[in-house]
Structures are given as C-alpha cells and as structure tokens.
Amino acid sequence: MDHLESLRIFCAVVEVKSFTRAAEKLGLSIPKVSRAVTDLEHKLGVRLFQRSTRHISMTEAAERFFVGCERILVELGALETEARHGTTEPTGVLRLVAHTTATVNVLVPLIADFKTQFPSVHLDITLTERSVDLVEDGFDLGILFPFMLTTDRMITRFLTRLPMTMVSSPAYLASRGQPQTPDDLVNFNFVAISPSVQAPLLRLRRNDQEDTINVNVEIASNNSSLRKEMVVRGFGLGVLPEPLIDEELKDGRLVRVLDEYDVVESGNELRLAYSARKFMPAKVRAFVDFATSYYGVE
C-alpha cells in the first residue's frame, strides 16, 4: 500500500478510535485498515496501538507520530488545493517572452487589456529579438516570429501579421539611383536580418507576378530599431515593420521603394507559442484564449 495512504488510514483510526469506524469513514474494508496499520508499524519498528477484543489505545509513540502526520496531511491538502486552483483560476506569475519591436509597436494594447481583465495574473515580460527555447528559458508562452523558435515541438497559433515595407533614405537613393524593377535590387545594399537567422531573400509581388531577389546584406542585425537607424543614415535599403517607420515616412527621413509591389514576407507572422495543451495552467489558457479572441482568430 502507498505510504501516504497508510498515514491517512492511521490518522483516521486515531481520530475515531476504532478500526471498524475508520474503515467505514474511508470506505475501506476492516482487514485493509488493519493491514495498513500493521505495515506502518513494521516500517517504523514500533507498536502504534494496543489492541484488545473490545477497544484499541494509542501508544506513546503513536501520540507523537500522530501530531506530525496530521500536520503533514493538512499541509499536503493545502498544497493540492493550491495546485488545483492554479489549473482552474487564472492567478500567479505569467512569464511571457515577446519580440521587442512587435511588442512596443503593436502588442501593448493586447497586454494592457489582458491585465485589466485578469488582475490576479502578474505579468513578467521579457523582450527579445533572438532565438528562444520556451522550456529551457523558463517562459510560459511567447509572442514571436517563426524564425525565433529553436524547436518545432512548440504549439503555435497565428495572431496577426506585422506589415513590412521596403524603404530607403533619400540620400542613399540620390547616390545610387532609384530602382525601377525588382531585378534592379541586386545593385543595392541592404540592412537586413542576419543571414544566419533568415535567408537573404526578398519576395515581391505585383498583381499575379512574384519575384524573388537574392539581396546583398551590407549590415545585419536581429534588432529592427537598429536596422531602421542604419537605413536612415544611408547604409542601404531595408525591409522594416510599418509601425516602426511611420514617423520617418511622415517627416521624409525615409521613403518607400518600389511601392507598387507588396513585400511577401512569411516571417512576419506573429505567433503565440506554448509548450503543451495538457495540464495547461489557467493563466496560460486565459492568455491564449484572450489573445486569439482579441485578434479574431480561431
């Protein structure tokens, strides 16, 4: 018999002062209760009860042992209740990792609205643009681009796309000329994501025609803000998130390039990533459901 179950049976016998009544209370047979106590005595090497045909009485060892057992069982019950509560009620610390640029420019309203609706969930948010292993790095979930995940064993849910635009500084175009077709881009430098993270390919589409260009990466970085600043300073063309460059487009520090073409960027899908559906904590389930509902996805 399980040792913990033996402790519960022992405490029940002490409380009702009878093997028979303990068996009735626990829904067990009298022989099973008696055997559990006997096995516990053998394990401890002490007699716990003095038995007679009419009644039982605790030994001194049993009195001391009961005090500790009762405390342990009460504490264990509290821990079990707390653990079950964590799977049904959204509480505790939710450790979220998210793409820096996407969070600052797009995700703040989502996170703020979630916190308003679930005030008992404490948010611990890490921003990064590097590759992430949710389990190894200790995160409950992530809002990331596909190329940031180090394993395909994560469950991912599409949330939204971050629109991308090809831009340049006016000075760079003045020195190199304005590209007229996608083929002209092979003569231009690009400030892009590191080729070790994402292949240096640019796909452009106009109507039903799609062109793929192998770009020359002059400066590489995983940080969108740094890439923007390098493009503004005239080091090349860049494909950047539209929310990040809105002000620069308005004040003329950046201009659109080949604006009649759409950037076809599969890597711009923001996805919700988490490790498992089974035994998912309530705080994680709450965020998953809230985020997918927020963006109107199933």
From TrEMBL:
CDD domains: PBP2_CrgA_like (cd08422)
Coiled coil: none
InterPro entries listed in its UniProt record: LysR-type_TF_proteobact-type, LysR_HTH_N, LysR_subst-bd, WH-like_DNA-bd_sf, WH_DNA-bd_sf
Source domain of life: Bacteria
UniProt GO molecular function: DNA binding; DNA-binding transcription factor activity
HTH lysR-type domain mapped to chain residues: 1-59
Pfam families: HTH_1 (PF00126), LysR_substrate (PF03466)
Record's keyword terms, sorted: DNA-binding, Transcription, Transcription regulation
Family to which this protein belongs: Belongs to the LysR transcriptional regulatory family.
Protein name (record): Transcriptional regulator, LysR family
Lineage start: Bacteria, Pseudomonadati, Pseudomonadota, Betaproteobacteria, Burkholderiales
